[in-house]
Amino acid sequence: MSVFAALVDQLADLLHPLFGTAAAAAAIVLFTALVRLLVHPLSRAAARGQQARAQLQPRVAELRKRYAKQPEKLQKAVLDLHAEEKVSPLSGILPSLLQLPAFFLLYRLFSGGGDGLLSHQLFAAPLGGRWADALAGDGMFGPAGLVYVGLFLVVAAVATFTYVRTRRAAAVTPAGTGTGTLGKVLPLLSYGTLITVAVVPLAVALYVVTSAAWSAVERAVLYT
């Protein structure tokens, strides 16, 4: 952790002439973007896997109808189909799982962050503080509270963008592919980021917001 904290501190020093007292916050955003850029090849692999599996969904739906009362034969038929088309059922999942250690590392870094990192501020809000601290201070529309209001607006915009795209994708998904209920719930999950930003330290909130925005743009590019 100390190595990565030192890297963020160095980035903050480099960005200080441009961002002044907000340099540490800018360094968190930049560092998060750099890590997401490094794992972007994994995201591309996940997109290719998901698209390949989506193309097989109509045929999988047919197998479900054919073997509706024969679960063992259905499982074997689905596995044979994936083997025939050279598509792994986990091809879109494993790359995403491999990204988790990087994201966990960033979360731990920005929630612990070292005394040097969390002692900085984003405008009037300390990076080690929370929304509850801002509310207890000058209230929602005080100097620190307005920082969180800005973050909430950004998160809401990103979540709405993701919601609209996910709903459109669900609308064109062929019926009978087993995504009905899931397709209704998934678009709403993007708004859960609002809760995360409200309860974690500001440094972590910046990481979460940056990562969510990156994911939204990345998916828009990879899944068009």
Task: Describe, in plain words, how this protein is organized in 3D.
By secondary structure, the chain is mainly α. Helices cover about 80% and strands about 0% of the residues. It has 11 helices and 2 strands. The protein has helices at about 1-20, 25-40, 40-65, 70-85, 95-110, 115-120, 130-135, 145-170, 180-190, 190-200, 200-220; strands at about 120, 125. It has a two-stranded antiparallel ribbon. Helix 3 crosses helix 4, helix 7 (about 130-135) packs across helix 8 and helix 8 packs antiparallel against helix 10 (about 190-200).
Quickly describe the structure.
With 224 residues, the protein is mostly helical.
Question: Which range best describes the helical content: under 10%, 10-25%, 25-40%, 40-55%, 55-70% or over 70%?
Answer: over 70%
Helix vs. strand class: mainly alpha
Task: Note the overall shape.
Answer: elongated
Rounded to the nearest angstrom, the radius of gyration is 21 Å
How many extended strands?
2
Biggest sheet overview: 2 strands, antiparallel
Strand residue content = under 5%
User: How many DSSP H or I helices?
Assistant: 11
Spatial order of strands in the largest sheet = 1-2
Order of helices and strands: HHHHHHEEHHHHH
**Average residue-wise pLDDT:** 83
Provide key terms for this protein.
single chain, 78% helix, mainly alpha
List the helices and strands and how they pair.
Layout: H1 2-19, H2 23-38, H3 40-66, H4 71-84, H5 94-112, H6 114-118, E1 121-122, E2 125-126, H7 131-137, H8 143-171, H9 180-189, H10 192-199, H11 202-222
Antiparallel strand pairs: 1-2
Helix pairs in contact: 1-2, 2-11, 3-4, 3-5, 5-11, 7-8, 8-9, 8-10, 8-11, 10-11
